[in-house]
């Protein structure tokens, strides 16, 4: 973890005697490196200074720029990185930076040898009458300019500027890429080592092609690719918090960024030691650099990890999978985790009129490498498709730009390489497939339409007759009449029905050794049906505060909701007083069983925790936004997160959920349902609930996953805080490392962990309007965005969570962290 700390590229300056400062450098006032009288150049706002330094333990001297008021001197630019100065006692003349008669910026050694120069000549006679000066701008840019502010014949404001020749650091306002008019390629090159600023193997720059991209190399090998610009971002990157600009015209092809918040001190540095491009933000409170993001972000960012037509899915194991319609070229190698040969089509296409090809659409992918591609910015997507069909070597096409509904044409030739699941939605990619792979599906659909149209009416009549007969014979049916909350209508919902004898046999008559747990609804049992299928049986307890309404509510919602991160209901059982729900069995039980057990929590390594957080967030986003009706869960907690055999999280227990129309986002109730420690303040105190109530619960759950501790309980008795309060205190102190679960040791991603804590605190803010929605939460968790500073959370103190502010006039029913509370009357 030490390699990720902000001190990686903070270099101590040795033997530096700053005796005088100046704001401009002229021929008559050079910058000297003398033990008795060193001078330095400072920017007008005092942020940056230019002078001589020695990095680390090195005795070599360099001319560089660094931050003035940051204690651990952080160098952002070096002039003579390949030709260091060496102090020689045989010479009395100091090394110096000066301006020659030709108005060039020159670094001279003690013996007068030119060690480095700006290599600049004055093109315009209008400048020869003025005085040329060197100045360090507030942006950290060292410029050579005419003192009277005149421009040259080409309209250039500066004769020369250091921003055109960056070293290893990218500052706001810099440009990466090509100045085509002057033939300048601005790219970053890492230091060779921490005390040697000479050029290392790692570099980052703009590759010109049909679609320019940002690329990192290690030596001559491509290491990371940003993906093509889609009109808003590079397709392989996430939306940043900085104002991105990408310019591609006859004069330049460049990428730059501007700070939206001018008070933020930030830098991007190429770290040759770790082979990362890292962004650091300066935290004034702790007087340290905080790592904000790193690239590559994960293994899937490594260039072409999965080979041709291999899709990298970072949360899967193994991460490399062939695209649908493709198979491993060498199954033996692919199974042995050697993905270099990639994948090939399951069925080859035959280009021609008689054997028509088709395309399969793939969504959510980083666009493939475009070195073998062709573009036309004016073509429509339909024209793009026809163009690809007319060329037998065309393998795929897509919109050139994703903005404004999509425009332009981007066509690939040859194998598609460097594919991965993108962290943000982008363009659809249409990959050429054999007609059998595309049209066969459409043919099957038509056949099924005909079959269904003929047989379904007959089957319906038979089933209706059979159902009527069974209804008359039995008083417990699978048809459950459920009141539509929004419309006041009656809706019939059919679910598979299990008779009581089947469930009794499956659970060994509800024996204790089959019992999985106990909730507010009642006990949950593990069962095995006669066909060997494993099930979980949720049995409504006679003493439960929940009843038929909650039972119907959960049946309705679970039957209608389908998502990979929601638990799947298989059926129900109603007989006499017995009411049961039958679920798919989750072999890893609930999250709280693992998370809060000191032995079991060791099985939750960092990648699994991060995967679980994302899964819960995706499931909650589906409930709030993507399902047909808006669902507010109202009881999100660790014990209601179930884990399947692959540790995929699934949200369960919808007995307390509320269903709204698509436009409704909040409601009020005099019957509060939820669990202390997870309920938002406005809900616990006033009965007001909304999607932001679930966001609060998610924030608590996120902090619990990171820390391995419950929000409620005696975790921090000496401070009187619950987990939220403790996290808030450490956040303000800049000591978030203390929050991370100790069982993880150093085996966690510091950037991801700190971002999760930050997002968690944003989710538990006191006022609902300050909390993000789940769509924003997912973007924040998966992006490099600078996040807003959280405001004070709600429920900081443990005694508040015990119900002290939950009303004084109504009936109060407290609960443990594992039991749902549903009887409290709001005041």
How many DSSP E strands? 50
Sheet having the most strands: 5 strands, mixed
> What is the averaged pLDDT score?
80
Distance between the termini: 50 Å
The CATH homologous superfamily of the largest domain corresponds to Transferase(Phosphotransferase) domain 1
* Class of secondary structure makeup: alpha+beta
What does this protein structure show overall?
The chain has 827 residues and is α+β, with helices and mostly antiparallel strands. It folds into 5 domains: 1-165, Orthogonal Prism (Agglutinin, subunit A); 171-297; 301-439, no CATH class; 473-585, Phosphorylase Kinase, domain 1 (2-Layer Sandwich), CATH 3.30.200; 588-824, Orthogonal Bundle (Transferase(Phosphotransferase), domain 1). The chain is built from 13 helices and 50 strands. The strands form 15 sheets. Strands 1-4-5-6-7 form a 5-stranded mixed sheet, with no helix packed on it. A 5-stranded antiparallel sheet has the order 30-35-32-33-31, with helices on both faces. It has a 5-stranded antiparallel sheet with strand order 38-39-40-42-41, sandwiched between helices. The radius of gyration is 32 Å and the shape is globular. The model is unreliable at 1-19, 123-127, 474-493 and 799-827 (pLDDT under 50).
Q: Layout of SSEs?
A:
Elements: E1 20-22, E2 24-25, E3 31-33, E4 39-42, E5 48-53, E6 62-67, E7 75-78, E8 95-99, E9 105-108, E10 114-117, E11 132-136, E12 142-146, E13 160-161, E14 169-170, E15 175-179, E16 184-186, E17 188-193, E18 196-207, E19 213-218, E20 221-225, E21 243-248, E22 252-258, E23 266-271, E24 276-283, E25 288-295, E26 310-312, E27 320-322, E28 326-328, H1 331-335, E29 343-345, E30 358-362, E31 373-376, H2 381-389, E32 394-398, E33 409-413, E34 419-420, E35 429-433, H3 435-473, E36 479-483, E37 490-494, H4 500-506, E38 515-518, E39 523-528, E40 534-539, H5 548-560, E41 569-575, E42 578-584, H6 591-595, H7 606-626, E43 630-632, E44 641-643, E45 649-651, E46 658-660, E47 666-668, E48 672-674, H8 681-686, E49 688-690, H9 691-707, H10 723-733, H11 750-763, H12 774-782, H13 798-804, E50 821-824
Helix pairs in contact: 7-9, 7-12, 9-11
């Amino acid at each position: 973890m030490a390699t990720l700390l902000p001190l990686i590229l903070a270099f101590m300056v040795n033997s530096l005697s700053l005796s005088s400062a100046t704001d401009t450098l002229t021929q008559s006032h050079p910058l000297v490196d003398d033990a008795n009288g060193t001078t330095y150049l400072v920017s007008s706002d005092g942020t940056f200074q230019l002078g001589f330094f020695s990095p680390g333990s090195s005795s070599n001297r360099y001319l560089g720029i660094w931050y003035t008021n940051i204690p651990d001197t952080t160098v952002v630019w070096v002039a003579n990185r390949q030709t260091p100065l060496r102090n020689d006692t045989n010479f009395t003349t100091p090394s110096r930076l000066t301006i020659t008669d030709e108005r060039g910026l020159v670094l001279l050694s003690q013996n007068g040898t030119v060690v480095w120069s700006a290599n600049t000549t004055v093109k315009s006679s209008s400048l020869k009458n003025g005085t040329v000066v060197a100045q360090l701008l507030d942006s950290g840019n060292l410029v050579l300019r005419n003192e009277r502010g005149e421009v040259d014949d080409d309209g250039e404001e500066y004769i020369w500027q250091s921003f055109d020749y960056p070293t290893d650091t990218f500052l706001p306002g810099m440009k990466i890429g090509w100045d085509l008019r002057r033939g300048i390629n601005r790219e970053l090159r890492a230091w060779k080592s921490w005390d040697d600023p000479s050029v290392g193997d790692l570099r980052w720059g703009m590759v010109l092609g049909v679609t320019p991209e940002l690329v990192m190399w290690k030596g001559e090998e491509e290491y990371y690719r940003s993906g093509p610009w889609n009109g808003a971002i590079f397709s392989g990157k996430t939306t940043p918090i900085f104002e991105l600009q990408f310019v591609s015209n006859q004069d330049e092809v460049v990428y730059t960024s501007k700070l939206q918040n001018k008070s933020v001190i930030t830098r991007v540095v190429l770290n040759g030691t770790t082979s990362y491009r890292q962004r650091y933000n300066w935290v004034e409170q702790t007087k340290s650099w905080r790592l904000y993001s790193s690239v590559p972000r994960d293994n899937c960012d490594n260039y072409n990890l999965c080979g041709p037509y291999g899709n990298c899915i970072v949360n899967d194991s193994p991460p490399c999978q062939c695209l649908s319609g493709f198979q491993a070229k060498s199954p033996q190698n692919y199974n042995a985790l050697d993905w270099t040969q990639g994948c090939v089509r399951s069925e080859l296409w035959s280009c021609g009129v008689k054997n028509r090809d088709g395309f399969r659409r793939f969504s959510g992918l980083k666009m493939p490498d475009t070195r073998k591609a062709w573009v036309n910015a004016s073509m429509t997507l339909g024209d793009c498709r026809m163009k690809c069909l007319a060329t037998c070597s065309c393998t795929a096409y897509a919109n050139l730009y994703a903005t404004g509904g999509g425009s332009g044409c981007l066509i690939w030739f040859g194998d598609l390489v460097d594919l991965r699941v993108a962290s943000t939605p982008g363009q659809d990619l249409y990959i050429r497939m054999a007609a059998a792979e595309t049209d066969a599906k459409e043919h099957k659909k038509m056949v099924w339409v005909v079959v269904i149209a003929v047989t379904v009416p007959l089957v319906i009549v038979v089933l209706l007759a059979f159902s009527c007969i069974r209804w008359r014979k039995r008083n417990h049916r699978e048809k459950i009449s459920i009141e539509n909350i929004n419309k006041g209508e009656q809706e019939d919902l059919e679910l598979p029905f299990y008779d009581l004898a089947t469930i009794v046999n499956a659970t060994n008559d509800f024996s204790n050794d089959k019992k999985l747990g106990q909730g507010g609804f009642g006990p949950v049992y593990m069962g095995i049906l006669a066909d060997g299928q494993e099930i979980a049986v949720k049995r409504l307890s006679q003493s439960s505060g929940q009843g038929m309404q909650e039972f119907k509510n959960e049946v309705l919602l679970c039957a209608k909701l389908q998502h990979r991160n929601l638990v799947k209901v298989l059926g129900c059982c109603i007989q006499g007083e017995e009411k049961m729900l039958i679920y798919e069995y989750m072999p890893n039980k609930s999250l709280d069983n693992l998370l809060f057990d000191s032995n079991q929590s060791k099985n939750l390594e960092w990648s699994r925790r991060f995967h679980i957080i994302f899964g819960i967030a995706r499931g909650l986003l589906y409930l709030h936004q993507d399902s047909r009706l808006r669902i507010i869960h109202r009881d999100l907690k660790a014990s209601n997160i179930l884990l399947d055999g692959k540790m995929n999280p699934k949200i369960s227990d919808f007995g307390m959920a509320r269903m709204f129309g698509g436009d409704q986002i909040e409601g009020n109730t005099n019957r509060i349902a939820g669990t202390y420690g997870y309920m938002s303040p406005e809900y616990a105190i006033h009965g007001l609930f909304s999607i932001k109530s679930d966001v609060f619960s998610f924030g608590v759950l996120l902090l619990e996953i990171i820390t391995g501790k419950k929000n409620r309980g005696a975790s921090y008795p000496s401070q009187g805080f619950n987990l939220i309060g403790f996290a808030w205190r450490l956040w303000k102190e800049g000591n978030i490392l203390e929050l991370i679960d100790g069982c993880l040791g150093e085996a966690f991603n510091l950037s991801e962990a700190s971002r999760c804590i930050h997002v968690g605190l944003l989710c538990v803010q006191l006022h609902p309007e300050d909390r993000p929605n789940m769509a924003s939460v997912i973007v924040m968790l998966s992006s490099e965005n600078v996040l807003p500073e959280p405001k004070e959370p709600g429920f900081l103190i443990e005694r508040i969570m015990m119900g002290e502010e939950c009303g004084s006039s109504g009936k109060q029913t407290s609960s443990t962290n594992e039991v749902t509370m549903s009887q409290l009357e709001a005041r």
